[in-house]
Every structure is written in C-alpha cells, then in structure tokens.
Please model this.
Amino acid sequence: MVNQSMQEIPTALKAEYPFPSNFHTTRDGHKLHYLDEGKGEVLILVHGNPTWSFFYRNLVKHLSKRFRVIVPDHIGMGLSDHPQDYNYCLENHINNLKELTNSLNISNYSLGVHDWGGAIGLGLATDCPEKLQKLIILNTAAFTTPIISKRIDLLRKGPWSEWMIRRFNGFAWPATFMAVTKKLDKNIKNGYLFPYHDYKSRIATAKFVKDIPMSEDHPSYHTLLNIEKSLPMINCPKLIIWGGKDFCFHDYFYKKWNAIYPDAETMYLKNAGHYVLEDEPLKCLERIEQFL
Model:
C-alpha cells in the first residue's frame, strides 16, 4: 500500500523528506513504514535509535537515481506503528526486516547500517550471507561488548530512565546536539524529533535502550552473540565510514570492526560525530557512491 498524500509529514519537512510512504503489515498486524525509491540494484539502509528513515534522506535522494533504495522504519520508530504492548527486542526487529524483504521478493542486495541498525541489518545479512553484495558500516556495532557509554548505560538501567525518555524525550532530543559536531538546522532537528512527539510515541526510543544486552542473562544477548559469530561468513566488499567524535560508538568499536574485517575499505572522519551523515554529508555520499 502506498500513501501518496503524505499527510503524516508536515509541509515544512517535505522538502527534506519528499518521499511517498509505503507500508508492510507484519505478521502480528502492525504497520511497518518504509521508503522504496528508484530502480536497479537494491540498497537497504537500516537506521538505529533514536533516528528513523529521515537519517538516510540525502542518500535516498541521490542514490535512488541509480539504485532501488529501501529504508524501513522499525516498529515503534518513524512513521511505523508505535504499539504500547509490543516486545521491542532485537529478534523481532530482525524478523520484521526479513518479512519486509521477503514480501518485496528481494534476492540480492547491498546493505548500509548505523547505530542499532547494525545488529538488525546484520541479523538479516548473516541469515543468508550469499545474498549480500556490499556492506556499508556507519558508527555501529553488531557484536557483544563490555563497553558502553556511561550516559547510555544510565538510561538503560536507571530506575526512572524509561519515564525520563518518554516524558521529556530524553533520548531523541539530546541526540540532536550530542550526536553531531555541527549544529543541526532547526528544520532538520524538527525532522528527527517529529515522530517522537508525546509519551506514547516515544516508547521504542526507551525500549531500544533497554534492549542493549550487556550480560548473558539479557533476553537479546544470545541473538546478538549468534550474529557476532556469523560475521566472518560475510565475504562481500565492505566499507567502514566512521565519525571520530562519537561519544557512544567511539574508536573501540571502529577498531573492533577493522579487526573483524581487515580487508574493508575505510574512511575515518575525525571531526564527525555519531550522526556522521549530518556532519559530513558530501564526503559520505561521494565515498558511498564510489563504493557502490
């Protein structure tokens, strides 16, 4: 189903995000929103928390001239449904992505991942690694680690953390200045915050944080561990683009990726933050296009 009216998107954002909406109904009846732009070889871009498909808007505008670019919003994020009684776990997000790609009859594709989209996207890719043609890694992780930002950890396990995130937008709003090194334009900032406008709509931004597995007894730990064990199965060309001033996915994670994939091409942007596509949009676009 395609919603051409785009009534969900405010007029002020349509210049930045001018795409018609598509929706896939998941097996549990929720509407998963996704972009499907252009024709040609397929490129799937997977966002993390607390972003949505808006994060990839500039890549979609440009790369859809030569590729078919598909960008889902995870359940609870962006323009997808925000159910209040959903199990926001890694396995479910991976399964939703698998459902979507199967419904679109995608056999081969390239993949770009950022933030928690790394675990979700690579959960898809490691399931059938022979389908993956190229991999683009942007400030993310898809492996278990004892390392976590203190600020993120506080929001993950603090007694008032979910209430703070949902009542005061205490994850998406701080990210609009903490995840960048260059101040966001007001309209761009509003674009990131648009889907997370009240207590109910912020449920997934809180649940995603709690789903970060830091111990073996966490419900998502073994899902992530199985992805980690399968990463060496991915033999396609790889590109790592990294913002060097990321307080969350810092150089420990960059070095870890280089150890996992020593043959990967790399572009290290020492002055860019976590939202690397915002801080260095032209450099990222040029390098990604060249790689593809």
Q: What stands out?
A: Residues 1-7 have pLDDT under 50 and may be disordered. The chain has 13 helices and nine strands.
